[in-house]
Amino acid sequence: MSVLAIDWGVVGIKAGQFILSFSILVILHELGHFLPARWFKCRVEKFYLFFNPWFSLWKKKIGETEYGVGWIPFGGYVKIAGMIDESMDKEQMKKPPEPYEFRAKPAWQRLIIMLGGVTVNILLAIVIFIGIMYTWGEKYIPAQNLKYGVYVDSLGKRIGMQNGDKIVAVAGIPVEKVGTVGSMIILNQAKNITIERNGKDTVLNIPPGFIEQLNKNKLGGFTYVRTPLFVDTVLPGTQITSTVPLKKGDQLIAIQHIPVAYNNDAYQVLKNLKDKDSVQYTFLRNGHDTISAFVINNAKMKSGIGFQSPDQVLGTVQIHYSFIQAIPEGVKKCYSTLVNYISNLKLLFTSKEVKVNDSLGSVISIGGIFPGVWDWQSFWTLTAIFSIILAFMNVLPIPALDGGHALFTLVEMVTGRKPSDKFMEYAQMVGMVLLLSLMAYALGLDFLRIFRH
Fold first, then answer.
1. Topology adopted by domain 139-227+308-319
2. What is the CA radius of gyration of the chain?
3. Transmembrane region positions (predicted)?
4. DSSP output for 347-399
5. What is the pLDDT of residues 167-221, one digit of tens each?
6. How far apart are CA 54 and CA 319, in angstroms?
7. Among residues 59, 64, 30, which one has the least CA distance to residue 45?
């Protein structure tokens, strides 16, 4: 087992984004239950963000409702009088129903209350996506702009790829945007990819086991954007000794006299120089002048020189939307996200290479998805995606979830027979055991992943 070097600053930023995103989703989801319950004159006894066994971090009673914040960030809840839920309040259920209780309301009202959270999550995702389209639009690097091709890791080399190749199609489907190849391979369970090498197209077969390994690579894929390195900025405090000051646009061509053509070359050279205090960089200016610079290095291989991003070097497509145009685009984005999520979920049952152990994760995995810097576009995009996932998972017909309660209510509406309180108690217990077991399993998988690295 290796010792992980943890950047607590990055961990804090990721955790902060996760807590804020999760809090927004949980509060609005529970509000989706709370509001219709109050509209139909049900008594809501508790409204909690996060779970609070034994004690609460904060609580305050306003009217007949206790509002609070729990200490286990796995969800939240509203406790509606006369409803069999996670509180398992059996004493209340032994008494005759009161007019303000959930169980005393008509089935159609109870159904609306149950599906309120899911409805709010879907509407929230649509609203967020509309806001994203209106505020930032869409920005991406077209695949055709990869004029320097890609560089590949050991997984890419397994299928015969080489540095400089360009992936033009996956299973015959043209690649339009950079960064989509990995998901295209997994979703389509692709058997081959088409690459362009030296101006010629070649079809490479994908061997068994490749997709399984690709699915395990949570932080990457098998190919990465390759670009030359051009100076963008020199960060304040950077210690550089050079013949002339560096300028924006200077191209890095060597490190310690070792030729460097692309970003991957620089990474490989610097990896072997991480213990060296001072490193000599050679730059090319205006295509003919060379500049030598000695840069103070550190263990994290951060020189203090900021290089242009792939977006800047390769160029991007930027699409702007008016507010009216953003509405259908936001709806389409919500729909495509849901379809992709369901497709990924189906692969757990239909694919031989997409394994539950590689795909399932707890709050640790979810928190790790957020970027290590605070980026509002990424934050809202991930919040919208998680809102869709939360809606879908909650509508599943599993006891203890909204979908389970809704299913029993629909059966009652069709048959005219209401399930007994005892049946609902047992169903709730079974559902809770299943959910808690799944959460514990996902948490265990995350801890295993941490210690394996």
1. Pdz3 Domain (2.30.42)
2. 27
3. 6-28, 111-136, 379-400, 426-448
4. HHHH-SS--HHHH---HHHHHHHS-SS--HHHHHHHHHHHHHHHHHHHHSS-T
5. 999 999 999 999 899 889 999 999 999 999 999 999 999 999 898 888 877 555 7
6. 51
7. 64
- Tell me the pTM: 0.86
Distance (Å, rounded) from C-alpha 222 to C-alpha 210? Answer: 10
* Comparison of pLDDT for 251 and 273, the residue scoring more: 251
List the one residue out of 228, 217, 218 whose CA is nearest residue 156.
217
Distances (CA, A) of 93 to 64, 79, 408, 420: 19, 13, 17, 11
Tell me if 172 sits within 8 A of 184, measured CB to CB: no
Between β-strands 317-319 and 240-242, what pairing exists: parallel, antiparallel or unpaired? unpaired
Instruction: Decide whether 139-227+308-319 matches 231-305 in CATH topology.
Output: yes
pLDDT (average), residues 376-387: 95
Helix, strand, or coil here: 146? Answer: coil
Pick the CATH number of 231-305 from 3.90.380.10, 3.30.420.40, 2.30.42.10, 2.60.40.730: 2.30.42.10
Instruction: Report the side by side order of strands in the sheet with 258-259.
Output: 240-242, 289-296, 278-285, 251-255, 258-259
Does pLDDT of 85 surpass 70? no
pLDDT score recorded for residue 442? 72
